[in-house]
Structure formats: structure tokens, C-alpha cells
Amino acid sequence: VFNTRRAVFADEKVREGLTYAFDFEWMNKNILGGSFKRTQSYWQNSPLGAYGNAADARELALLGDAAKTMSPELLAGTYTLPTTDGTGADRKVLKMAVDKLKEAGYSIKNGRMSDANGRQLAFEIMTQNPAQERIALAYQRSLNLIGVAMGIRSVDDGQYQARSNSFDYDMIIRSLPSSLSPGMEQLNRWNSLSRDAQGSFNYAGVANPDIDRMIEALLQARSTEDFQAAVRAYDRLLVAGHYIIPLYYIGAQWVARWKYIDRPDMTPIQGNQKQTWWDARAQ
Questions:
Q1: 73, 131, 217, 253: which is deepest, by most CB within 10 A?
Q2: 228-256 per-position pLDDT tens digit
Q3: Where are the alpha helices (DSSP H) in 106-175?
Q4: 197 secondary structure, DSSP code
Q5: What is the DSSP string of 40-91?
């Protein structure tokens, strides 16, 4: 999560360029055992997500002028993050990152990604555990290739929570669980009023009137169609803002069981329910 309260991440192009530099394919192959898929949406693997769903007339009406600032791919539901060759040094994708940072006023000088005043693009990522450190180290390796200096600050649980509550970080790694019925909790995650509220979940420091409008739209929706359109439009705005570097998800649940433990043929939309399973030997 980029802390946009920090000047280094205030420019959306900087955030987008740094997102491109993250080599998910290398990390998935070398650290995660190739078990995961790249997240493309805040409601991934769900009918509420914008990915895979083009914006219809209802959605475009909600977005209004905000739609004009979005790429055609995002409106069509086909936008995806760049896919690397998995080597950890895909020059094609790294060039995309460099080009986007160039649009923000940065260029590589003497091996350092620097602004017009010669100041190197540098920031720190705060981690809480070894799993987060491995992700951060993989990212650091990629950024070094384009001259971006990223430090890693590992802290204990108490310090991590305290600094998260006060937004005292450049970047952190957080999970962003979503339900199929987003509602009032979104105010505490992405609404402008939560940006400076200590202890809120607005880790990215988002304050965007269009996002505020879309949260209000999903809260006021009274039909399935209106609700779905509002959440998809909301999703597009969040993706377009490049407030986070999306990591990964699993599109299924993995469960180890003895063969004699049986279960219903149909799995509920929220996942398996252990209380409905039974010992087939008892029949």
C-alpha cells in the first residue's frame, strides 16, 4: 500500500511506474511455489469486480466525468497488470516502469532514478514478519535494476500496529479482505473523511471526491443492478488510482481430508462449511 500522504507517492504516475516494477511472476515462481494468481480487482473472482466486466450505461452514468480519465481497457474490463517473463529482470516491463516514471519527471542518471534536482527516488517499506520481508526483498531486487532505492524496516507487532494507526510509514503490506456485500466499512477504508482519522483503515491516504460519490452510491443502492454497478464503478476508480500494488489470491479453497469424510455436492458461495460435512462410515 502506497501512503499517498508522503510526497514521494503523491503523483499517480510514480505509483503506477513503481507498480509495473514489481515482478509478480518471479515472486510467484521462486517464493510462492507458483500457487497463486495475480490480483487484478478489489473484488477479484466475484461478479462485483470490474475485471472481466465492461462498464455498462448504468455504470458510466455513475462515473460521469471520472470515466473520461480512465483508460479504454479499464472501462472495457480488460485492463491487467503487465506480465513479466519470470526471470526477475524483464527489460520490456522494466522499460514500462521507467517510461512511466519519466512522465513524472524522473530519469536514470549515473545509475540512480533521480528527479530534475538530482534527488534519487527513495522510500521505505515497513514489514511485520518474515513472509512480508521475502516479498519486500523481491521487490527491492527489481527496483535496484532501475535505480530506485527502497529500504526495508522490520518492526515488532506492537510497533507495526502503532505506526499503522498513525500512518507513520512510506509503504506497508496489508491484506484487504472484501465481502460480497460491501457497505459502511468502506467509509473507513477509502473515504476522504477517514484519510486523517487516526486508526482508520485508509492506509493509502485516499481523498478522492469521485470515490466518495461511489461509496455513497453503493450505500444508497436499492436494487441488485444499482448495487453491482456502483461497486464495479468503485472498483474501477480504486484500480485507476494505483493506490496499491496488487499481490495475489487463490481462486479456490484447499482442504486436506480423510477419504471417509464426505461433503455436499454443492459448495456455498462463501466457501466450504465444515459443519455440513460428515463421516460416511456412520451411514
A1: 217
A2: 999 999 999 999 999 999 999 988 888 99
A3: 130-144, 157-165
A4: -
A5: -STTTTSTT-STT----HHHHHHHGGGGGGS-HHHHHT---PPP--SSS--H
Q: What does each C-alpha distance from 199 to 29, 52, 125, 212 come to in angstroms?
A: 35, 34, 19, 19
In the block, cell 521507467 appears at: 98
Which of helix, strand or coil describes residue 180?
Answer: coil
Max Cα-Cα span within the chain:
77
Cα separation of 167 and 4, whole Å? 10
Give the three cell numbers for residue 121.
Answer: 527516488
CB environment 119-128: b (16+ within 10 A), e (fewer)? eebebbbbbb
What does the block give as the cell for 60?
458510466
- In tens, the pLDDT along 51-61 reads 999 999 999 99
